[in-house]
Q: What sequence folds into this?
């Protein structure tokens, strides 16, 4: 989520980099300020990493793509178009890299070489008791076709607005909405037994059905 | 709205993602259709907002160090604050918005495409070449007159040419500047080398002429090739 653009007229360096907006930090990066770049990296690495992990389903590859994303940001810092939010830009870069990587894998798969390793490790680490339950949901998300998975993750995990999604997925607004909806319907279909069971359990109570 | 359509909208309905009109229509349907209402009840309970539900993966602890080390290995050009080519820089200075730049590229390519299409569709106008000093002295030339000869004048001229009785005895006729040479050279024929780059009107082969029944001529072949290079049709 983009940092609120408060006090847009402030110039780099600001007193506290942690408090700076993305665009200010980018000004700092342009001025070769390492701390500005570090703050940017820290601000985005976890959310990007989660998205990339779920896109590629492989932790090591996700980390490579994450590194490549930040390298691109560093190399292309001058070509950033300030009419867009920085978050949109960095997500666009990350998603394009993911897309290329997935395409590359599919090409290999076409020739009989399967690069998609089912990396269990990426799903195992995390918060204790949720592991075995959430893996059902994790698997269901992983089984969505790429473009629906992207749409679903951006919307439901990264909490993007449809406008932001449309910009960083580079597809029209209507397409984004219908992809999110398709993804939800597909997930519901895949998780039907689980949802039914939970629904029966909590029929009389207003507790929402949790999928993890 | 039918049930299928309504069910597609249900998630959006409960997530406040629909327009007021859409909401109204869905609500009206749900009030009247118990099956969809049951479906809606279930969907309304599904919590798809997964922000806090899924595990959070964290990149390895030394991610930042590795990244910064990688940046150190970049070549000076890549590290330089501006790696863009001069034209890209200029373009961005003049048109800071990417959208505007793409619009510009689109407009430019549309114009080029339109120009190509128009120039393909409209054949180049035949430009009559002016005769050299030598040629203009040939007595037998009958100029058509005005300098701005239109295509229809050219067609008229061709018709006149076909009706000319002397055509029967000539193998080759030349049109220069849309004037017409009835005869030329010592033997009454234009030499092949004289014909180069002129409009040459050739009678068809005798065989074809016979088939053409008497005075009726097939419209002459117009060519800018030397007559000597032409063979049977």
A:
């Amino acid at each position: 989520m983009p940092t609120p653009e408060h006090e847009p007229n402030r110039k780099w360096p600001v007193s506290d980099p942690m408090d700076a907006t993305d665009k200010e930090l980018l000004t700092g990066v342009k001025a070769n300020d390492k701390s500005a770049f570090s703050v940017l990296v820290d601000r985005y690495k976890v959310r990007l990493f989660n998205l990339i992990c779920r896109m590629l389903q492989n932790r090591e590859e996700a980390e490579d793509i994450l590194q490549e994303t930040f390298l691109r940001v560093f190399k292309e810092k001058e070509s950033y178009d300030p009419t867009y939010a920085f978050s949109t830009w960095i997500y666009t870069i990350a998603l394009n890299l993911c897309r290329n990587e997935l395409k590359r894998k599919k090409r290999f798969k076409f020739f009989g070489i399967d690069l998609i390793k089912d990396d269990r490790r990426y799903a195992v680490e995390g918060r204790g008791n949720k592991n075995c339950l959430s893996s059902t949901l994790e698997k269901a998300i992983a089984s969505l076709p790429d473009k629906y998975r992207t749409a679903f993750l951006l919307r439901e995990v990264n909490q993007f607005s449809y406008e932001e999604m449309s910009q960083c997925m580079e597809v029209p607004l209507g397409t984004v909405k219908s992809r999110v909806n398709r993804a939800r319907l597909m997930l519901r279909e895949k998780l039907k037994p689980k949802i039914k069971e939970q629904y029966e359990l909590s029929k009389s109570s207003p507790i929402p059905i949790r999928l993890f | 709205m039918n049930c299928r359509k309504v069910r597609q909208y249900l998630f959006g309905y409960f997530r406040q993602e629909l327009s007021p009109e859409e909401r109204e229509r869905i609500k009206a349907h749900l009030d009247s259709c118990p099956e969809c209402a049951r479906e809606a009840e279930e969907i309304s309970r599904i919590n798809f907002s997964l922000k806090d539900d899924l595990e959070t993966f964290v990149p390895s602890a030394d991610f930042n160090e590795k990244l910064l080390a990688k940046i150190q290995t970049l070549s000076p050009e890549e590290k330089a604050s501006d790696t863009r080519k001069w034209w890209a820089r200029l373009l961005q200075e003049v048109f800071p918005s990417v959208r505007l730049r793409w619009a510009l590229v689109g407009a430019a390519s549309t114009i080029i495409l339109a120009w190509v299409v128009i120039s393909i569709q409209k054949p180049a106008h035949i430009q009559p070449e002016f005769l050299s000093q030598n040629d203009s002295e040939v007595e037998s030339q009958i100029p058509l007159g005005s300098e701005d000869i239109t295509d229809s004048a050219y067609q008229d001229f061709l018709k006149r040419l076909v009706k000319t009785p002397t055509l029967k005895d000539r193998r080759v006729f030349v049109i220069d500047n849309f004037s017409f040479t009835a005869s030329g050279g010592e033997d009454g024929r234009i030499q092949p080398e004289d014909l180069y780059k002129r409009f040459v009107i050739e009678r068809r082969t005798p065989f074809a002429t016979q088939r053409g029944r008497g005075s009726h001529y097939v419209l002459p072949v117009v060519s800018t090739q030397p007559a000597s290079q032409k063979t049977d049709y």
Q: What stands out?
A: Residues 1-8, 115-133 of chain A have pLDDT under 50 and may be disordered.
